[in-house]
Structure formats: structure tokens, C-alpha cells
Specification:
Length: 223
């Protein structure tokens, strides 16, 4: 299992996006977490396929695209074609989950499903063989800088149990929201291997140094 740090661009300075991405590359980030919001599924708006395409053209870092949009099934292709390497959509916003997951995989990207903090992990049991990763939201999606919701701990543990029961050893578990230096090792110990962090990186006095510290915790016991 690989342990990956995915800085979220949501908290970056959009007036200097190119610089921010170069900083993340130099700091050895593993993935670029791109939060797509539509002002409908969540009460905030960010960016769409053209920005994803520009990021793809300007950076070698794999793009981890997190769709927080209504009717994601209608928008998979534009994001895949723009260069999403990892593509996830919210369980609550989709209808034909399995079809969507298979479509993402068929186009060569890693397929993920995202659960809001209040959505039970047992609901996606039958979808797990079609997932490369599950993204557990540890805040209500829409904004950076919120606090980690403690009840999510139980969901992470439950998901790791299901993963073991089903023999899905390659299933990645990603956590997003309120993640920072204070909880990385605890999350790692519970079974998380992909860590999204926005404000903890970009609002720190030295983002590059913070990434280094985070990587040290995340990669520590990599096997
Ligand atoms: C929230 C987004 C997150 C956000 C996390 O809706 O999905 O990716 O950027 O921000 P922090 O790390 O500040 O909680
Ligand atoms: Zn996100």
C-alpha cells in the first residue's frame, strides 16, 4: 500500500496557481487534489474542466479530481478527457454508481466514490470491488478550513474491517477535511493511506516545510 499526500488546491492562491503548483512539486507532493464544486450539490463554486486541463498541461503530478457536483454521471467524460488521473464522485449525488465507476476505469483512470460524513460505509459494500479508492469526507463538503468530525473515526475503522473481510487489499482509503499534522499518524494507524490537506498546508507559515513534515509522518512506516 502506498501512502500519498494530496494537497488540496482549494486553499491555494489562485492568482498564483502556477507558482503554487510548482511549489507543491518541489515539496514532493504525491497528488494534486482538485475540488470541483458546482454551487448546487455544495454551496460553493470552484473550477471546471478547462482548469483541470491547464493543470494537466503544466504539471506532472497526478490529478486527484474530487467532484462535488449534482448529476456527476453526466460530467465524467469532460473531467476524464481533461486529464483526471483519479476521479471520484459523491455517492449521494449519483444513481448508477457501478456504471460510473466502471466507466472511469475503462477510460484508464482510478475510480473513487466519496461519502459525506453522515453516509454509512456499509451502503457501498457491493460497490467496493469496482473502486480503486474510497474518499471519506471528514467535514461537510464545500469549504476548506473546517474541523475534522470525530465520528468519522468509526467509519474509517468500519471500512478497513470491510476491506479485510472482502479481501480487497488494494483498496485505497482517502480522508478529506480537517486533516493536518495533529491527526495524520492517528489516521494512518486506522488504515488511511491517502491524505488530503488544504488549509493545513497553504495557511501554514512555510507550506513547503509543512509538506515535508507531513510526508515524514505519512511515509514513516511504508511497507
Ligand atoms: C472540502 C474539500 C476539501 C478541502 C479540505 O469540501 O473537499 O478537499 O480543500 O480543506 P481543509 O484541508 O482545509 O479541511
Ligand atoms: Zn476534496
Amino acid at each position: 500500500m502506498k501512502y500519498l499526500l494530496a494537497p488540496s488546491l482549494l486553499s491555494a492562491n489562485f492568482m498564483q496557481l502556477g507558482e503554487e503548483v510548482r511549489m507543491l512539486e518541489k515539496a514532493s507532493a504525491d497528488l494534486l487534489h482538485c475540488d470541483v464544486m458546482d454551487g448546487h450539490f455544495v454551496p460553493n463554486l470552484t473550477f471546471g474542466p478547462p482548469i483541470i486541463r491547464q493543470l494537466k498541461d503544466h504539471s506532472a503530478l497526478p490529478l486527484d479530481v474530487h467532484l462535488m457536483i449534482s448529476n456527476p454521471e453526466a460530467m465524467l467524460d469532460p473531467y476524464l478527457d481533461a486529464g483526471a488521473d483519479w476521479l471520484s464522485f459523491q455517492y449521494e449525488a449519483a444513481v448508477h454508481h457501478q456504471r460510473a465507476l466502471n466507466h472511469i476505469r475503462k477510460k484508464g483512470a482510478k475510480a473513487g466514490i466519496v461519502l459525506n460524513p453522515g453516509t454509512n460505509v456499509d451502503l457501498i459494500r457491493d460497490l467496493l470491488p469496482d473502486c480503486d479508492y474510497v474518499l471519506l469526507m471528514s467535514v461537510n463538503p464545500g469549504f476548506g478550513g473546517q474541523h475534522y468530525i470525530p465520528q468519522v473515526d468509526r467509519k474509517i475503522r468500519r471500512l478497513t474491517e470491510i476491506r479485510t473481510e472482502m479481501g480487497l487489499n488494494g483498496l485505497n482509503i482517502e480522508v478529506d477535511g480537517g486533516v493536518g499534522l495533529q491527526n495524520l499518524s492517528r489516521l494512518r494507524a486506522m488504515g488511511v493511506n491517502i491524505f488530503v490537506a488544504g488549509s493545513a498546508i497553504f495557511n501554514s507559515p512555510d507550506p513547503k516545510k509543512t509538506i515535508g513534515q507531513m510526508q515524514q509522518i505519512i511515509k514513516n512506516k511504508e511497507e
